[in-house]
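Listing S7. Sequence submitted for prediction.
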Amino acid sequence: MPGVKIGKSEDLPIMESSVPSFLPGRSPTSSAFKRPLSPNFQTSDSPNKKKSEIFNDIDKPVPIEYSNHMQARICSILSRLDGNSFSYDRWERQEGGYGITRVLQDGKIFEKSCVNVSVIEGNIKMQSFAKRKELQLEEGVDYRFKVSGLSIAIHPNNPFAPSTHANYRYFELFRTDSGEDSGPVLYWFGGGADLNPAYVIDEDATFFHMIHKRVCDKYDHRYYPTFKKWCDEYFYLPNRDELRGVGGIFFDDLDNRPAEQLFEFVKDAAKAFLLAYIPILSRRIKTPFTKKNKEWQLIRRGRSVEFNLCFDRGTRFGISASVRTESILSSLPLNCIFHYNFTPQPGSLESLSLEVLRTPREWV
């Protein structure tokens, strides 16, 4: 069934960025398109076998610096919209690494938003890790990992303004017996963005997917259908047989091209997230709503909490890797409710939205 139709876009405030221009960035070489695409993106001539210079060349923008830059940029944009500032909390991890947690809560527009950076390094439990990643690493050798990431979660006050989540990360694995100038034995990128409305509005979901498809198609026309399907499968609550939202893109273990090329894609994907979400937020933040609408929003936010605590790999990794718990859980909404055995009234806006969330849809 179709999603909810609520007014017209022209009746609601729209930012100037509602019609985004094509995103800048370099195109990959034609030879890269010949490589097969699979969920783990492994190829026979994977560049993981070569030395990556992405952390070693100080003249190039590296993931850590870019994450810090995007954190500041996103916080600035959201602060201007809300009229309130983000907190700033830098913390150190005893086992190696640091993080910067920035949160805005109880705002005019945002019930809660977090924009976090983490740079984590340390020894890794190779047996379970190698098995999950299907890696063949040298026995008797110790390895250390280094991962940098930017994580964003936004929960607006208005029930018709969707929540959203985005994450962009870079992982490297090093031999501990190698010198400081040695490159990683393997690397990969991961990330994505998804839209999580309480009330599914067709034009919002289509717009969000259209922007992400555009940036994916710029690099590889196989990216969007693969990443979109992966997103639908990942952000799924099997206990409810429901999707967390209307999806977007999700990718992991992306290593089928040189790190510098993949980094360009990840940077453009992060820009696309802003272009995809801010116009939707602008259209919906002043939509009138009732107590019933707010209650449904809090029920759907309960689903988000369920997913994060029960199924999200990132949350489990952060907790198991002794990353700061307050920062890991800062992406959770400020409020949610859990009614026992709640069922929306048939034919209601809530019921129509739930039907969409139970069946993945091709939005573009």
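Caption to Listing S7: primary sequence and predicted structure tokens for the chain studied. The longest strand covers residues 110-123. Residues 1-61 have pLDDT under 50 and may be disordered.
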